[in-house]
Amino acid sequence: MKFEIRAAQIDLARQIETVDTVKRFFDVAAGAGLNTIVMYLEDRVKTATYPYSPDVESYSEAQVREMVAYADTLGLELIPVVSPIGHTERFLRHPELAQLAELRGNIPGMFAKGTPDDMHMDTCPRLAETMAFFDAYITEVAALFPSKYFHIGFDEIHEMGFCELCKGTPVAELFGGAVKHFYDLLKRLGKEVMIWDDMLEQQPKLLELIPKDVILCAWFYQYTEQYPTARFETSSAYDYLTYYERLGYRTLACPNKRGSLDTLTTYAAKCHTMGMLLTSWEMSNHQQLAYLYPQLTYAGLLWTGKEVPGPAALEKAAAQYVDTPAAAKALATAMSAVQYGGVPLPGDKACYVLPNECGYVTENMLPLVIDVLEHATGDKDVIDAYLAKLHALQLRFHLWETGYALHEYRAGVGSLTIEELRREAAACAKQADAVTEKITALWDRLRSGLPYSSAFRNEQKMYRAAADWLVKTAENAVAGEIGRLVIRYELREYTAACKTVATVHYADGSSFEAANGTYKGMYLRGVQYDYSYEIPADKVPVAVTLTVSGYGASGFRYVSANVGGKEYVPEAVASASGQVEHAEFMLDNDTRAAMFNEQDMMQFFTNDISAKREHSVTLSMKEW
Questions:
Q1: What is the pTM of this model?
Q2: Does residue 310 fall inside a structural domain?
Q3: Do 495 and 439 share a structural domain?
C-alpha cells in the first residue's frame, strides 16, 4: 500500500500556530515517512494586497519563506490552500472586503436569513472585484510556495446564485466558471490546481465543466465499506475514485480519523489515486497539534507500505510516544475507539438527549484509558494533549448524565434522590474547574504567546455555565414540577437541516410549544435517537402536533408524554398535511418511522425546493 503522495493537512486558518510549532509538525510528518504538507491557510498570510489582519493573526511573507525552507530540508513539499469563493468569512469580516460577499446587502440565501448579523461565508463569483482581489492575493501567496500544486478549496459552497448578478444562472455554471478562472490564473503561474470534490455530487454537471487536469481531493470521513458514501444528499455509496479516474481526473483520497483512515486507505489502494491526504480541522479549542502526532505516525506506517491497517500498526505508532506497552495500548485506544463527538450539555433550552448504549460504552472506557495515560512517561506534549481531550470528554458525559437525571427527577420519574443529584451537580462544578485549569495550562505551554481563541474561551464558558445551571437547578428542584414530552427521531441523512416544532394540545383548547429548533442526534448514534422536552405538569395532553420545515427529511418513530406520574401515548393520526409518508407508523414504538419532507437531498441542492414549506401531523393521545 505504498502511495506516491503521502500528505497531512495542518489547519492554520482556524487556529494559527507559532512558526516553531509548525516546524515540529513538519518534523513529525517527515519522521513518519510523509512527504507533503497541505497548509490550510485561508487569509493567514499577510501581503501587500491583504494587509487587514493584525500581525498576531497572520504570517508574514518572511515567516512563510522560513517554513518553506525548513520543510525543504526535511524533504517535505508544502501546498497552500486559499479558497477564493467558499470559506471566505475571514476575508469578508473586514469592512474593506465585505462588498465581495454573495449575500451583500443582507440578501437571504439558502441558510442565511438576510439579517445584518448573518455570517457571510461565500464571495460572489460574478463580481469583477472578487476576481481582481483574489487574483492578486493568490498570485502573492503562490510566489511564496515552490510547489507545483496550489489548492483553491471550493468545498461546501451553499450560498451561490442569490445576488442580482448571479440569480438565474445555474449554480454549476457559476461554480465551473469560477474554477476555470482561477485554474487559468494558476496555469499562467506554472501551478497545477487542486480542489475538494464534495460539490461535484450536488452539481454533477461540473464534471463536464472543470478542466480534466484539475486534481480532485476526495474527502470521505465515514467508515468506508465497499465504496465511500456521499457527503450530502442521500449518502449514496459509489466507486468515486474509479469514476473520477475514468473521466480523466487525478485524485487524492482524504480521510480524517481512524475509521476512515483505515478503510479509505484500503479502498484507495485498489484505485489509481496519486496518494493520500490526512486532513484535520478545527484545532482552535484546547486541542493541540501534538494531539495529531500519533495519527501522522500511524498514517505514515500505512502509506509507506510498512504496515497494514489494524491494531498492531496502531500500537506500533502509539509506542513511539509512550514508554510502556500498556501505555501504547491506552494511547492507541484513545486514537481510535474513544469517540469525540459533541456530548449535549444541560442548560436553558429545556430539552435533553437521552443517554444511549454507545455513549455508555465510551464513558466507561474513559477512566481506564485516563488512568494509564496519567501514569505514562514519554512525549509529554502528546500525553497531555490526549489527557486534556479525554478529561474534557469525561466532564461532558458527567454534565450530560447529571442534567438528564435531574430532568427525570423534576418530571417525577427519576431514580436518584435530590441529595444525590445535588452531590453530582457539585462534583460537576469541581470537575469543570479542574478541566479548565488543565487545558489552560496546556495552551499556555504549547501555544505560548498566542491569545486564547474565541472557541477556547467559549468552551470554558460552556462548561462553567452548564455546571452552574446544574447546581442552581438542583438546589430548587421539586419532584413532579414538570411534565415531559419524549420524541423518538429518525434522521437518515445527517446533513439535513430540518426544523421541528412540537406543540402539545389540551382539552381546554390551549396549547404549549414544547420544541422549536433543529434537533439532531448529537453523540454516537445511528439514525434513531430520543429528545425529552419540558411541558406543563398541571395539564393532560390530548394531542401532539409535529411540524417540519427546512432542507431534507426528518423522521419520527414515536411520541410519548409523562404528566403527573401518568404516561400518554399516541391513539390515532388526527390529521396530516404537506409531504408525509406513513404517519401511522408513529402509533407504535418500533423500528418504523414516518418521514416528513423531501428525502432526496439532491432536490434541494439542484432545484432549491422551498425550505419554507411545512409538513405536519397531529396525533391524538390517550392515557396508557
A1: 0.93
A2: no
A3: no
